[in-house]
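Here is one chain, start to finish.
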Amino acid sequence: MNDTAHAEISKTRKGMKTRPQLMEIKPINFLFFRTEACMDQLGNYIPVAKDLFKEAVNFNLHVTGPVHWHYVDFHATPKEPFTLEIALPVAETLPEYDGSFHFKRTGTFRCATLTHEGSWNTMADSYGKLHEFIAAKHLKSMGITREVYLNADFRHPEANVTEIQVGIE
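Its structure:
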């Protein structure tokens, strides 16, 4: 990437804490759940995070970060399936694990990112800014998006803080 690609664009919408920027996320170990899902089913998977935490405690794993949702080949149409991974960062993977979930260690993840503050109902604006940023920098999406839930407040959604990471090639 050149210096121009690393430049930030101005914040223009209410509710966005950061402007889009480019980052390289170092490799992460995950305990994760994977399924094929459609957009209109996502609410059904919210309880999976609790189960991941329970499994981490049962196997005495050190949790190293907040819950991620990874969307692979995501389609914004309500009935079109994509791969969903709900992932919990952990200090180590267990090669002999034979439980309900899976382990993986990711590679470096190059992405365009910004932090969205507020209700998830308004995240389309943040995604729009990220996609404008990617297009303006002539970058190509790799078809993987991560949402990192820094604060998930179901009773007061205005307090939500979500880092959106759109993978780029």
